Amino acid sequence: MSLFSFKSPKKTSSPPFDPAEEEPAIRCSICTGEQVAGFRNKRSGQFREVTLIRTPKDLESFKKDYGVEDLKKIF
User: Fold this and answer.
1) Does residue 11 sit within a domain?
2) Is residue 18 part of a domain?
3) CA-to-CA distance for 50 and 38, rounded, in angstroms?
4) What's the chain's average pLDDT?
5) Structural domain that includes position 49
6) What gap in Å lies between CA 24 and CA 9, rounded to an integer?
7) Is residue 45, in this structure, part of any structural domain at all?
8) Fewer Cβ atoms within 10 A, N terminus or C terminus of the chain?
9) What's residue 16's pLDDT?
10) In the structure, what pLDDT confidence band is assigned to residue 8 with cuts at 50, 70 and 90?
């Protein structure tokens, strides 16, 4: 028996987004290069994080789950 047990997170359904109020975007860190996919509110500019992008597969999965094609990059 291990002292540390790892449980994989359960896949939940994708939280919906309203294209009239939010736009899909990737927030990129200039210093570390970290990328997070999510949605930016068009009125307030607030960014809602959805998933960390570590590989191109993560990005493709985000696009497929939400049915988006183009993503705006925010620095």
Assistant:
1) no
2) no
3) 5
4) 86
5) 24-74
6) 24
7) yes
8) N
9) 81
10) very low
